[in-house]
Amino acid sequence: IAKERPGTSFHFFSEEMDIRSFESIKLENDLYKAIERDEFLIHYQPQFNYKDGKITGVEALLRWDHPEQGLIPPDQFIPLAEETGLIVTIGEWILRKACTQMKDWHERGFALGTMSVNLSVHQFEQKNLFEIIQQILKETELAPSYLELELTENLIVKNKDLTMQTMKELKALGIKLAIDDFGTGYSSLGYLQNLPISKLKIDKSFIDQMLDDRSAITNTIITLGQNLNLEVIAEGVETKEQADNLLAQNCTLMQGYYFSTPKEADEIFNQYA
Ligand code: C2E
Ligand code: MG
Ligand code: MG
Ligand code: MG
């Protein structure tokens, strides 16, 4: 098309933009329908204590089984779900589903410690987030201490007062709070001290850099966690070398492909229960 109209490169670009927005409009429409069509599913990734090899919990990770495109990873539709506000409905769905799963495992004798669920900025800005979570726990009869919510630093610093208040309420109910992708965001160390959290998740990027004598960051986060009395878990551990190295630095909790990729609920039960 650009060839047919020499010099009109503007036209070429604008057409490209039209195509892109058409695709994103289609995806947006599909996203609206995905809930009622029951196209979302959860994969669970185990977390381990590397010292004794025991599973300590799982993280619930959202997947979209799109009718034409197949399984779509969250990075490809969560931003859109955030933009459109659909994340609120989807987030409520995943919380209910994950808590129901955890309760079911417990009833079948699989004594898993924590079910971790990721929360996004928009979800945390909902006024009634606390009531919704409380309601879901009541409905599913899951004790709050088995639920862990993963928040990012950017979420926490975005609306400090509201976030702090909601976090305090959630903690008072007995829910655990973890900071996801720790070290990549904008929270200050001074602020961290006052947060009602119980765990730091070291971002995968620091685990990747750790070998070749570059463990300064992981070491610092692990020590920080110890000093603040927080649990520390390493994310994205892919090799035995990394796992051994982390253990030598006194980090025992780990999650990553070296141990297991995210899997369907039944697979988790069959393998670890
Ligand atoms: P996250 O919460 O930091 O989750 C960890 C991501 O790293 C997951 O990707 C997981 O599959 C991947 N991962 C774990 N171990 C390894 C490893 O050893 N190597 C590599 N290369 N990757 C590993 P996933 O499932 O694609 O999720 C991406 C992000 O999407 C999550 O990052 C989280 O921020 C977001 N997300 C996932 N589910 C939900 C959800 O239900 N709600 C919200 N708000 N966000 C979600
Ligand atoms: Mg997470
Ligand atoms: Mg993470
Ligand atoms: Mg992430």
Question: What is this structure's SSE topology?
Answer:
Layout: H1 9-36, E1 40-49, E2 54-66, E3 70-72, H2 78-84, H3 87-107, E4 114-118, H4 121-125, H5 129-140, E5 147-152, H6 153-158, H7 160-173, E6 176-182, H8 189-192, E7 199-202, H9 204-209, H10 216-227, E8 231-234, H11 240-248, E9 253-254, H12 265-272
Parallel strand pairs: 2-4, 4-5, 5-6, 6-7, 7-8, 8-9
Antiparallel strand pairs: 1-2, 1-9, 2-3
Helix pairs in contact: 3-5
The protein binds ligand C2E and magnesium ion (MG) (3 copies).
One magnesium ion is lined by residues 180-181, 201, 235.
Protein name: EAL domain-containing protein
Domain EAL: 24-273
Keywords: Coiled coil
What would you say this structure looks like, in words?
Strand 8, helix 11 (240-248) and strand 9 form a beta-alpha-beta unit. The chain has twelve helices and nine strands. With 273 residues, the protein is of the alpha/beta class. The protein starts with 8 loop residues before the first helix and ends with a helix. The protein has an eight-stranded mixed beta barrel, surrounded by five helices. 48% of the residues lie in helices and 20% in strands. The protein has helices spanning 9-36, 78-84, 87-107, 121-125, 129-140, 153-158, 160-173, 189-192, 204-209, 216-227, 240-248, 265-272, and strands spanning 40-49, 54-66, 70-72, 114-118, 147-152, 176-182, 199-202, 231-234, 253-254. The structure holds ligand C2E and magnesium ion (MG) (3 copies).
